[in-house]
From TrEMBL, chain A:
Keywords: Amino-acid transport, Cell membrane, Membrane, Transmembrane, Transmembrane helix, Transport. It is a multi-pass membrane protein. One of its GO terms (biological process) is amino acid transport. GO terms for molecular function: transmembrane transporter activity. This is Polar amino acid ABC transporter, inner membrane subunit. The chain crosses the membrane at residues 24-42, 79-102, 192-211. Residues 18-206 form the ABC transmembrane type-1 domain. Gene3D superfamilies: MetI-like.
Automatic annotation (TrEMBL), chain B:
Belongs to the binding-protein-dependent transport system permease family. It comes from Mesotoga infera. Residues 17-202 form the ABC transmembrane type-1 domain. It is found in: Cell membrane. The chain crosses the membrane at residues 21-41, 53-76, 83-102, 184-204. This is Polar amino acid ABC transporter, inner membrane subunit. CDD domains: TM_PBP2 (cd06261). Its main location: membrane. It comes from the Bacteria. It is a multi-pass membrane protein. NCBIfam families: HEQRo_perm_3TM.
Length: 229, 214
């Protein structure tokens, strides 16, 4: 049923699109990590002045669809005089979205840290900033690496919405090739396998880093991620 | 540029939001029933069927929602099935909800104490009694936070069905935007509707999670 000639003809296009998807995801991922770390640290502070804006930000991101957030950035920001290309809009929307989820992961990591760690480093005369950078954050990141990898896996899936802004990533390319060749099974099957491959690699990675025993056996069991709402 | 008053915008978007919410009962019913069935098939490791379902579930969980929407929307006519936008939405949302919920229920099953099964068996219950009277009520209770989380995800995902022609809140907001040329107001109202429904659910999910841990 599958047309091998069509597949070999368009495979380079699909790989190019896969590269674009990974580019969008990697760029957004870096910004999201920065946003998430800063917001996550702020959210552990006691002052109401810090907690309320953070609560509004994460609450908004978590309760509205990413598509609406993308439209907000792409169609809303130009009204305020900020002109953005589709690519920039996508990166901003994905970074803000993923950043909110990462901030909750970072927050969870920070609150699970032993108080003695920061007290000891303060007693050694380290400033708050040094304590964070040298003592707390390295330990937190080591602990939260598995959920961060899961979050990156969600981010890669979310980048498919960039297709709405005509960015030539995997989902957009699949649609374009489906419309051109009238072969929906091949056109959507190959990108889905690509997404699936990335998902499996990241799942395996998250699992191995999580220090689970008998990785081979669990790999056979088709492990899943902890789900983030 | 055409003037639509704020109240008119809220009214039109509110009506449109009802079509988003109309997906929920169908999708939840299908997702929970099929999810439970798949979870039991995989839990009992029924040969062949279990492996096939595992691969299908992982493919759905590993693929972006949008590409599943496109794939179903463009591929179904090729196998002779013509669906409207709403039916396509139900099919696609149910597929993803089933995949995620089956994994939720399966983890609930795996986490359950083996003694529960053995005790029910010892009491002479049939398999059907065991499942419906002993196992399911407990699993539904322990997985409630994830079920509520899945409801939130489904509500948010309904917005994506607008991309294959479903007239719902996001599509309506874009139409309004093209009339008023003011995207901020239209999208703010849309966000407000989603927050109104989803935010309380997220809080409930968190509360339930806290309750279960204690």
């Amino acid at each position: 049923m599958l047309d091998m000639r069509m597949i070999s003809q368009y495979l380079p296009d699909f790989f190019e699109a896969l590269f674009e998807t990974l580019k969008v995801a990697a760029l957004s991922g870096v910004f999201a990590l920065i946003i998430g770390t800063v917001v996550g640290i702020i959210s552990t502070m006691k002052s109401k002045l810090a907690i309320i804006p953070v609560g509004i930000y994460t609450g908004f991101i978590r309760s509205t669809p990413l598509l609406v957030q993308l439209y907000f950035v792409h169609y809303g920001l130009p009204i305020t005089g900020i002109m953005l290309t589709s690519f920039q809009s996508a990166i901003i929307a994905f970074s803000l979205n993923s950043g909110a989820y990462i901030s909750e992961i970072v927050r969870g990591g920070l609150t699970s840290m032993d108080k003695g760690q920061s007290e000891a480093s303060r007693a050694l005369g380290l400033s708050w900033f040094q304590t964070m950078r040298l003592i707390i954050l390295p330990q937190v990141f080591k602990k939260i690496l598995p959920p961060l990898i899961s979050q990156f896996s969600y981010l890669i899936k979310d980048t498919s919405l960039a297709a709405v802004l005509v960015i030539p990533e995997l989902t957009y390319t699949a649609r374009k090739i489906a419309a051109r060749t009238y072969m929906p099974f091949e056109s959507f099957g190959i990108p889905m396998l690509m997404y699936f491959g990335i998902y499996l690699i990241l799942a395996l990675l998250s699992h191995l880093i999580g220090g689970k025993k008998e990785p081979a056996r669990s790999a056979r069991r088709w492990f899943g991620f902890g789900k983030v709402v | 540029m055409q003037d639509i008053s704020l109240i008119q915008q809220v009214y039109r978007l509110g009506i449109a939001f009802l079509s988003n919410l109309a997906f929920l009962p169908f999708v939840l019913a299908i997702g929970i029933v099929l999810g439970i069935v798949i979870a039991f098939v995989r839990f009992h490791r029924i040969p062949v069927l279990s492996q096939v379902l595992a691969v299908l579930v992982e493919i759905v969980r590993g693929s972006p929602f949008l590409i599943i929407v496109y794939a179903i929307y463009f591929a179904l006519p090729y196998v002779g099935i013509e669906l409207g936008a709403f039916q396509t939405g139900i099919v696609v949302l149910s597929i993803t909800a089933t995949a995620y919920l089956s994994e939720v229920f399966r983890s609930g099953l795996v986490a359950m104490d083996k003694g529960q099964f053995e005790a029910a068996e010892a009491l002479g219950m049939s398999y059907f009694q065991k499942v419906t009277l002993i196992i399911l009520p407990q699993i539904i209770k322990t997985t409630m936070p994830s079920i509520v989380g899945q409801i939130v995800m489904t509500i948010k995902d309904t917005s994506i069905v607008s991309l294959v022609g479903m007239v719902e809140i996001v599509r309506t907001s874009r139409q309004i935007m093209q009339l008023t040329l003011n995207p901020f107001i239209a999208f703010s109202i849309v966000s407000a509707f989603f927050i109104l429904v989803c935010y309380p659910l997220i809080i409930v999910s968190k509360k339930l999670e806290g309750g279960n841990n204690r």
